[in-house]
Structure formats: structure tokens, C-alpha cells
Amino acid sequence: MKASSPFADRSCSFLLSILAIAKVFFARRPLARLLSTFLCSVIIVIRPFSRLGGQYAFLVLALKELVFGVQDNLAQQLELTVLNILGALIGIGVSTFAKYLASLAGYDTAAARATCAIFLILISFFAGIAKSRLVRLQLSTRISCFISIWLLTNDIGVRPRVLEDSGNFLWITLSAATLCLVSLIAMMVIFRGSTTNFETETATTFALLEQCLSSSLYRVGARETKMNVSYYRQLHSQLLQQSIKLNETYSQAAFELRIGRLSLQSIHPFVGIVEHLRRELAWGLSPLKPTHSIPGTPYSPRSGAPSLYEHPNSPASPSSPLQDSTFVATIEPPALTLAHAILDAMKTVEHLIFVTFHQRSAGETTETAQSVSGSQKAAVHAAERHLKVARVQMREVLKHVFDQVDMQQRAEGKHAHLPKEIFDCSVAAIALLQMAQEMAKALQVAENVATLYEESPTRLWYPHITLQWLGVPPGPFISDDNGDLVMATGGGVDGEVVDVGGDERLTVMEARQGLAERAFSFTLVKGRPLPAGGLSMRYKTYAASASRMDLKLGDSKPWTWKYWSGFISMLWSTERMLRLRVWLSKRHRAWQHSSHWRHGLKNAIGVAVLSSPAFMPESSSARQWFQSFRGQWMVISYLWVLETNTGATWRTGYLRLFGTLLGAVYSYVASIICGTNPYGLVALVTAFDIPITWIILKTSVTPLAVPASVTLPPILFAPYIHPDPSTSPLKLAIIRAVMIAAGIVAALLVNSLLFPRHCRVLFLSDTSRTLGLLSSLYLTLSHDMFRVHRTRIHEERRKTLKLELQIRSALYRLSALVKTMHDELSLLPKPLRHYRQVIITMQKLLDLMTGLRKIRENIPRKETVANVFKERREFMSCVCITLFACQHAFRAREPLPQFLPSARHAFANLESHVQDCIRRAREEDPHALGLSLVYAFAEQEVMQNVVDTLEELLEVTGRLFGTSAWLTHESHFSRTSTMEEGDHGWYSTFKWEEGAE
Questions:
Q1: 3-state DSSP helix/strand/coil % of the chain, to nearest 5
Q2: Helix boundaries (H) for 254-301
Q3: In DSSP terms, which residues pair with 460 in a beta bridge?
Q4: Contacts for 725-731 with beta carbons within 8 Å, 24 or more apart?
Q5: Alpha carbon distance 918, 936 (integer Å)
Q6: How confident is the model over 128-160, as pLDDT tens digits?
Q7: What SS3 class is residue 544?
């Protein structure tokens, strides 16, 4: 029995593996893929059908794999079918017109060959622009080029072949599209169920929010947690990715064909609510830090400085738990009640989404829908009442919590200093209040969804043809793979995408000085003041007007050169001419720096070079070589591998190269086994699609599987359709593999040498730009805080929200660039771990600044702003200088200065003065400030976290680019004395441990 136990375990493991594999394949999409491969193979080997495709009939399998592959659901498949058939029809139509014009010039004449070549280059150029600009049209543009390459490089000038070849490709396209669609529909009959993802992802995100909030409740009492901090950070990272994924999923699902009672737009507000809840968890309920004081903060109230309840001459008792116990004991019960009310509201919203979008009863009637809606509305109303009561109770407790602390102090006659726990509890309490406000909005949205579910019949939701549907990001959000979007006012993406990396443009201030040197005055449109800095200072946003000031023709005579040169100069300097010059300058920059135009040029240049032998005279050896070796596969492979940046191209390139070799080897073996036997061909091609399907659906190396599958048809089916005894299977396999590999290598070379867009260069420039946006955001927040008359509040808030959205989009693109950067070829290793740390740090800064924006709406302005203006100004300057230093380091790739103004020192000074002002206000009126006092302490805690995050940013920036150190371990001054000097207002970016190595 003991001897057979290991054998039984191995057998059991083997059976479990078999069941796991069977579970993967016995699903809708895998079986539909296998069925489509089988059907495509069958129509190729059946003569009556294959004759409709002519000599190109085997391309049905290629188009099925490259363009019309089976998707997850019917909506995606219909969209793919319609778009790609339209792309194919455009390619067929334009190519047919080109071949007709070429046939008018005569067979194999120079004019005929030139006509086909020019049309192919133009098609490739515009297809490249559309592919780069409109994400959803990538496959449509590729199939247009695919068909055009075959049509325009064969039978040039032969009039009888013009319509015949076009008809062949029309049959090939429609066959591949129809068979894939039929295969999916057939499997949907067997495997029923919904595969729409957005509503499922939304409900899952609320469940994840519940988990994050539940694990953070220990913060309410400022207690130590038994949970691993790394686990919590993993949860929060997962929540961040889920929030970003919601935007992506909605941008895809909102424009798809679907059947149901509700539109996905009805639950779209949950996307913003989820992001707000995530941010409040980030800045208000993140894991606690160690309570010990951080060196270098001699004036910090949390490390022994005068504080709210401590007179300068009174003895401090830092270890006293007086306020800690009173404050926590008072605030903890209502805070936990509010937290559980928020959790109940999240569960209610999650359940409502599942019920309203996944009610799949076949006989569902209006009465059934009303019953479901009524029960959900009742749950929503109950959650609303519970949340409202808990929120009001929490606010009342916070208004008087410090009154109770004062009463206990006066009873004991003590003045103890505020411990860090009070600041932690304050920020946690404010975060809970903000989360309650967001969940109240979520419950209102949920009630509207339930009402719509009750009133709406089941209907077909179809996509609207818009730029967003074609792939333009909705608003200033996610682009394809680059970070070169310049955002327009109003939250939309500007019509022209300009690569601002390596920018040589003049800023508004530089242009103003240039005009002043030419004796011009300079103003902005509608009298707007000059912007604070960043991208908004470009002419892209602010147009300029100029007028002549003091330039006269003098006493020059009309026939002299001086007169006419002065007259021309005056015309050149008029206001209308200056506007025209500015407009032309913008258009020139847009064309010169646009990544889309550059990608189109690379597309066209590569196609022109690789297909040039096809347009030489028929008697030339190059033309004969191109036709005998089927050089079209080289050009097609080039187009499929060429991506919009070098990292993606390298990854696609080497994976497709390996896939091509794998497909060639299998094709050679299969051709030896079955030859031209139709049954054997269909069986072996379908069998090979089993591992290909697993690679495509269950791994991240899809570019390896697709070319392996595409390599089979020209090697296995071409001899069946047109037998050629002179070509052996081995020779045919080698030729096809070499042609496809040549196109891959050409794409790698072109993308590396012509307009290269290296992910590392894009990452560094985009990081610099994102730091500039963070600086602009902090300046905007500070500007709002110092505003005396709070006019134009809505405009300023809109500007702030737009900056936050731009930064969020930039951080997403930076994460995508880091993933792609891993695949770039480089002689030196890239510090990807540090790059990821930079992104995490900037995300923390964004979340903290969002918290500051919300908290500062309720702080006591007299005590925390007006009376401490000097200290606020010093702290704000330190933050901006730190961000500017890091921004310059990433932009210029230069070391940091050794000493920078210390934001920690400035914050300690500010905090001390703020608490002094609050203490005096409380002495004058024991009930002063109320709830705003909690907001003031919460702001101080968030600002402390901002300081910590800035120092993390300086540390990782210094590790990446170093420090311009002038005071090192080799100097005569000791390290200790230098550190002591550094505590007084300066932060040293020089790492002594590294300098000593």
C-alpha cells in the first residue's frame, strides 16, 4: 500500500492536469477557434470553393488568423467583422482602380509599374497614419495593406486580371469573416452565457474596495495591525490597476453591440466614484508609519516641539497618553459605525449591479423586473438611511471632540503635547467622511439604475460611429503606447497630436521678449494673464496678438532700398500677419513632430523598399526573384511587425521570428506525412491549431503563435492548389520562412534607425513632463488657498480636475512604457525597478495632493493660512523647488544639486506656527474652530506625508542620475558636522554610504 502511494499521487496529478487542460479547451472561444480553422481548411481543399479564390485561396486561413480571429463574444466579433471587411473593401477598391489605370498604360510598361507602386506607397502611408492615430482601426488598415500588396505586385498591366484578382480576394475576405462568425455563433448555441465584462469588473472593484477598507479599519484607532503591510500595499496596487482597467473596459464596451435592459452608460458614473474612493483610501487610510521621530525635524511637534496644548515655558510630557486615549476613545465608535455603513453601501451597490445586469430569466416579464427593482430600491434606501445617520453622528462627534480633551486637561491641570495618533486619527476620520460622501453619490446612481431597469424593455444597444469608437481615448485619458498627447482645454484631446519630446519651440515668454526686441507689444487673448508655466505656456493653448509700437519709415525715399525694406517689415509685423505666422508655426510643428505622420512615413518607406523588385521590368532578375520567392510575405511581415515604438517592435519581432521557424518546421513535417492529401491536410492543420489556441488564449506570447499558424497555408496548401514538381517541401518551407524573417528584420532595422521612439527616452521625457504637471497642480492648489475673493471657483476647480486627470493618464502611459521597455535591445541593463518606484512615488504624490484639495476646502483659513503666510510661502517654495530639481534631472539626465531647501524643515516651522495660532484661538474661545480643527490636523498629516514622499522621490532620482557633490567624505569637514548643518533648512541629496565606496 505504501509502495503504490507515490504512483497513485502521480496518477492523480496527471488526471488533474488533463482535466485542467480539458477545461481550458471545452469553452466557447477555444472550440470556436478550432471549428473556424477546420471550416477554413475544408473550403480550401474543396475544389468548387477554392476555385473562387484562384491561386490565392489558401489565404483564407491566413486572414482568419491575422484579422478575423474568433473573439470572446458576438458583439466583438460583429464589430471586428464589419470594420475589417470595410478595410478590405477599401483596399480592394483602391487597388482595383490602380490596376485599371495601370492596364490603360499597357502590359509591363514603366507607367503601369509606376502607377501600381505609387498607389501601394500611398495606401501604406495613410494606413500607417490611421493605424497610429485610431487604435480600433489597426487590423482594418493592415488588411487593406495585405490585399493591396497582393493585388498591386502581381499581373501589372494585365486588363483581364483586374476584376478577376479583385473577385478572388473579395471571396477570400468574406469566407474568412463569415466562417469565424458562424463558428462563434455555433458555439454560443452550446455554451450560453454573458461575456460582457464592464459590469462584472465594476462589481468586482467594489468588492475589492470593501476588502481594502476592511483591512484599514485599524487606522481609526491608530493601532498597530497584525496584517502584513506588504499585503495591504499589494491590495492597494491591485485596486489601482482595477480602477485603470475600468476606464479601458468602458472605452471598449460602451461602443459594442449588446442586448439588455440597461446601457453601460447608466453605471459609468461608478468609474469616477471608484477612483475617488481609491484615492481616499490612499491618502487617508494607508498603512501606519513608525511613530518614532524622523531625524532632521527639530521643530516637529511630534518630536518634542511646542504644540497646541503646550505653553512655551511649560514642561512637555511627550509620553503622556492623555489626549491619545481621550481622543481615540471618543472618535473610534462613531468612526467604526460609519466605516461599516460604507461597507454595507458598497455591498448594496455590488449586488445591484450583478442583479440588474445578469438577470437572465428566459420568461422575464415586466412584473418580474418590477419585483427585482423594488427589492433593490429597498436595499438602497436602507443603506442610504444608515449611511446618512452614521455620517451626521460622526460630524457631530468631530465638532466637539477637542472640547472634551480640553475639559479633561483643565480637570487635571496639565498641558500635554499632541501625539502622532491624533493626527493619524484625524486624517482617517476625514477620509471616512469623504468616502461616505462618495458612497452617497454611488447609492443615488444605484437607485437610478434600479429605476431604469424597471422602466426599460430589453433592447439592442448598438455602437455609435464616433472618433471615440474608432479608438480615440474618451477625454484626456489613455492613448495607445505613447505619452505625446497634448491636452486641449475642455477636457478633450487636441485634434493634432504633437510629440513634445526634444522640444525646440519658443515659450510664450521667449516669444514675448523676441517681439519686444523688435519693438512690439505683446498680450494674450482676452487679456488673460500669463500662465504659471508648463505646457500651458505654449502657443498651443494661448494665442498671441502683437501690434507695432515705435517703428517708422522715417525720411526714406520711396525709391530707396531702406524704404521698401522698412515697408515690408511693417507688413510682416502687423497683427494679422503675426497671427498667421503663429498659426503656420503650429501647423509646421504639428506635422514635423507628429508620431502618427512619422509612423506613416516608416510604413511607406519600408513597403517601397521591400516591394521595389516587384515593379521592375519583367525580364529583370529582381522581379523574377520576387515572384518566385513570393516576396509579398516579406512586405506583409514588415507591416505586421512594425509597431509605434522600438520596444514593442522588438518584442513582436523576435516572437514572430520564433513562431515562423516553428510553423516552417511543422509545415515541412506535415507535408512529408500527408503530401497533398486533402484529408491529411485538414487534420494536421486543425491539430496544430490546438496548441496555437492555448498559446493565444492562455499566455502572453500571442505574437509567437499567430505567425506559426500563418506560415502553414502557403507551405501546405499552395502545392495542393497549384502543384509545382520543381519545388520540394523543404525548399518551399525554407523560402517562406526566409521571406517572413526578412520582413521581421527589416521592421526591426527601420524602427531602430528611422525616427526611433525608444521607450526609455519617452519614459524620461514623459516623467519630466509629469513632474511638471504635479508642480502645476500644487501651484494651483496653493493659488486657490491664498485667494482672498474666491471668484471663478468653478473655472479653477475645472482646471485642477483636468490637471489631476492628465497626471493620471500620464502615469498609466509611463507604466505601459516600463512594460514595453523590458523588450528593448540595449547593451546596458535598464534600472526598471527604479523606474517603477518613480511611478509609484508620483502616484502617491497625486493621491496626497488630491487629499489636500479636499481637506483645504474646510480648514480654518485665518489660523492656518492668513496668519502663517510667510511659513506657507516658504514651504510651498521648497516643494516646488524639489519638484523642479527632479523634473530637470529627468529632462536633462543630469545629477541633482547636493543641497536643496528642506521641505521637512519648512513644514516643521509651518506646523509649529499653525498650532501656535490654533492654541491662541482656543484660549480666546474654548469652542472655536470645531470640525475645522480636525481638518487642520488632517491637513498637517497629509502635508507630512507629502514631505516624506518628496524625499523618496529625491532619493530615487539621486540613485538614477547621481548628485553634483562638492562636499564629500574627502573634505576636511566631518560628516557629523555637515549633517548638523544640513538640518538647518537644507536637504542633502548626496549619499555618504555610496560616496565612500
A1: 70, 5, 25
A2: 269-284
A3: 259
A4: 729/667, 729/668, 729/671, 729/672, 730/668
A5: 9
A6: 999 888 877 888 999 999 999 999 999 898 888
A7: strand
